[in-house]
Amino acid sequence: MATTASQAGPSGDFTLAEIKARLPKPGVPWEDIAVPVLLFVLGGTTGMLRGSRMAALQFAAENTHRAPKNVQGWYFYQKTKNYRVILGGVKGAAWRSFQLGGLGVLYVGTREAGVKIGMREWSDVLAGTATGGIISAISFPSRYSHNR
């Protein structure tokens, strides 16, 4: 006995658009997810570049006094340097991506809190001011930065 479309189940007579319309929608707007994710990716990219460059310079500074004297030593030196550069890049990417991703979550969370308390028109200003205030309270300038 063959089953017909109406007997196949609750979705037998629906089109794809109707099925998509019936699916539950997330309660979070797209922008609230995109901002932290994009900042996380941007932080990972810049952290990888900066961390690997700093690791390469540090390795070169620490090992210039014992330069390799033969071909085998040169290959070992380059291999060790490459591993240190990769490790420094991964560490830098992790640190910077969590910094910027957290900054995005802080901004979006503060903006949504402003909307929830009834300050819809001022929520972006509130979020920017609060985020900037928290960053300036946490980060301290270098001891030598006033000489520049």
TrEMBL record:
This is Mitochondrial import inner membrane translocase subunit TIM22. The lineage of its organism: Eukaryota, Fungi, Dikarya, Basidiomycota, Agaricomycotina.
